[in-house]
Design a protein that fits this description.
This protein is α/β, with parallel strands linked by helices and 150 residues long. It is 57% helix and 14% strand.
């Protein structure tokens, strides 16, 4: 099962946020590392802004972190068809543009899940189900996947 990861999951894995979410993000990514994880390039761009702006990391340290993520997982580029789909998501579902682009890239790359806390958990579009991995209860698809990995 292909899985895309949103910026907030990466930011928590980088140690930005409360200890519980940071720990869950690291654990989750560690469990899923053998799976087909996808990082939309947009998430790395957003992570750059977060690491430099919020975490006050140097640009060189930020670059090292981003290259580490890119070395570990497949990075999916933004394409014109993905932008066109994102425009539809903005118009039809009132999603913010950059979140819509991440969802469109996940769909374009045949992901079944997009892990993010920025969307309504359970929303499905073009076969991609949005799941908040930090919610009070795990979505059944994520719970099933984790059960098979443990």
């Amino acid at each position: 099962m292909r899985i895309a990861i949103d910026t907030n999951v990466l930011a928590y894995a980088e140690g930005l946020g409360d200890a519980v979410r940071c720990g869950k993000a690291v654990q989750l990514i560690g469990l899923l590392a053998a799976q087909e994880l996808i990082l939309p390039a947009q998430t790395l761009g957003e992570l750059t802004r977060v690491l430099i702006g919020k975490a006050k990391r140097t640009p060189a340290d930020t670059r090292d972190a981003l290259l580490g993520w890119a070395d570990s997982f497949e990075v999916a580029d933004s394409t014109w068809p993905a932008f066109q789909s994102a425009f539809d998501l903005v118009a039809d579902h009132h999603l913010p543009m950059w979140d819509a682009l991440i969802l469109a890239i996940a769909a374009e790359n045949h992901c079944r899940l997009l892990l993010s806390e920025d969307f309504t958990s359970g929303f499905t579009w073009r076969g991609v189900t949005l799941v908040n991995p930090f919610g009070a209860s795990l979505h059944p698809l994520l719970a099933q996947l984790l059960k098979h990995l443990q």
